[in-house]
Amino acid sequence: MKKTSDKRHHVVVVGAGFGGLDVVNGFSGADVDVTIIDRRNYHLFQPLLYQVAGASLSTSEIAWPIRYLFRNRQNVQTLMAEVQGVDVGSRQVLLDNGSTVGYDTLVLATGATHAYFGHDEWEPHAPGLKTLEDAATIRGRILSAFEEAERSNNPAERAALQTFVIIGGGPTGVELAGTIAELAKDTLAHDFRSIDPRATRVVLIEAGPRLLPVFPEKLSDYTRRALEKLGVEVALGAPVTDCSADGVIVAGKPLPAKTIVWAAGVQASPAARWLNAEADRAGRVLVRPDMSVPGHPEIFVIGDTAASAMPDGKYVPGIAPAAKQQGQYVANLIKKRLKGKSVDEPFKYKHQGNLATIGRSLAVIDMGRLKLRGALAWWIWKLAHIYFLIGVRNRLSVALSWVWNHSVGYRGSRLIMRSTPQAKRGPAELEPK
Ligand SMILES: Cc1cc2nc3c(=O)[nH]c(=O)nc-3n(C[C@H](O)[C@H](O)[C@H](O)COP(=O)(O)OP(=O)(O)OC[C@H]3O[C@@H](n4cnc5c(N)ncnc54)[C@H](O)[C@@H]3O)c2cc1C
Known about the structure:
Elements (H helix, E strand, L loop, with lengths): L8 E6 L3 H9 L5 E7 L3 E3 L4 H5 L9 E3 H4 L6 E5 L2 E5 L4 E4 L4 E3 L2 E4 L3 E4 L16 H20 L3 H7 L1 E5 L3 H17 L13 E5 L11 H13 L2 E4 L4 E5 L2 E4 L2 E4 L2 E4 L2 E4 L2 H5 L9 E2 L5 E2 L2 E6 L4 E2 L12 H19 L15 E6 L2 E6 L2 E4 L1 H14 L3 H17 L25
Parallel strand pairs: 1-2, 1-9, 2-5, 9-21, 11-12, 11-17, 12-13, 19-22
Antiparallel strand pairs: 3-4, 6-7, 7-8, 10-18, 14-15, 15-16, 20-21, 23-24, 24-25
Helix pairs in contact: 1-9, 4-5
Catalytic activity: a quinone + NADH + H(+) = a quinol + NAD(+)
Family: Belongs to the NADH dehydrogenase family.
Protein name: NADH:ubiquinone reductase (non-electrogenic)
């Protein structure tokens, strides 16, 4: 295992998400050794996860092997390992197999996961959408629900199987609700004989007063109306107080549903605990203006794991462009330091806008003075996402899948993967492509 030595400066980056990749890319041609560690062997484009859950895209269209991405970078070593802690005294990262990796500079970009507001027991009934495994599990549950409804003779059971509840009215909840409604009412409309997929109920539940709270109120209203036109029932100001295998309790009333998806809370990775650093309520490390950890100029935390204050006192939002900008900033800062230059320029976040898609030809965009909705916003959303995908092959593949889906409503990833033949609606395996 690599150790710090008296040779080149060694930067260890933990997490090959949006932030981590941009740190490593920032060291292209630099006179440093870089080790990137991730518990998975791939980089994941999370913004399109809901399309895997909704059977529009396959897993390999939105993920890339990390080792492949850095195959031509001789100064970069890729390690697949779960980081379990950091010994800040001896400057070692602690891995799951008991080994350690020494660093001169450490960048933690380990992202976030879902939070159940103290109700972790809800997770098996209401999986969140954060990983490819989550997306494949949710897709398997959605498709299996239709299959089970087709062979059920019990009307109440059928109704519960054809009811899909999404908890959380942020972009992920809105996108999931729209895609499940379209899957049921369009893609699957003519494929069953005993049930009518168009009679499916999709219920989007939000505890707050409106959908997409980071968008202006007019776009939130538009989103609600657009979803309702797609047949989604939107429940606002409706807190969920229980989740079980039978459904949810919402606003005090039971709602029977066999498929529930969690798109509500977010909790940062445990980096603050590893460092014994101060964190906010979501577990994000309270970083200095240069993204370093107080008392540790050699450790940086970026992306969804960092609470980085802006001049107005708010924190930088947990979105991909913010993580990427922080990654680029930190790589530049480290390079300048190594050249002996003083760096007193703090990280400045440039907000490029908020985008969310609702359904086919329906999206909302808020770019400050430019606010768009409907088909034009949807095309911009599509082009932006294709632009940010890595590599020509994936761009073409995703574009083709979308054209197919848009023109004939076909979804190519409508596969239910089971680990064993007798498995019921349990976690799905990932499909090969
Ligand atoms: C469903 C969904 C939809 C989204 N849609 C959008 C969108 O439309 N637009 C947008 O801008 N943002 C969107 N986001 C948010 C965006 O994806 C995140 O803000 C962004 O990924 C944060 O980047 P990051 O580098 O901090 O973390 P991530 O991209 O999450 O990367 C973290 C990496 O760290 C690794 N890791 C974590 N813990 C460990 C460990 N202990 N050891 C080793 N490796 C570890 C993980 O495997 C992962 O590869 C979405 C997020 C989700 C979940």
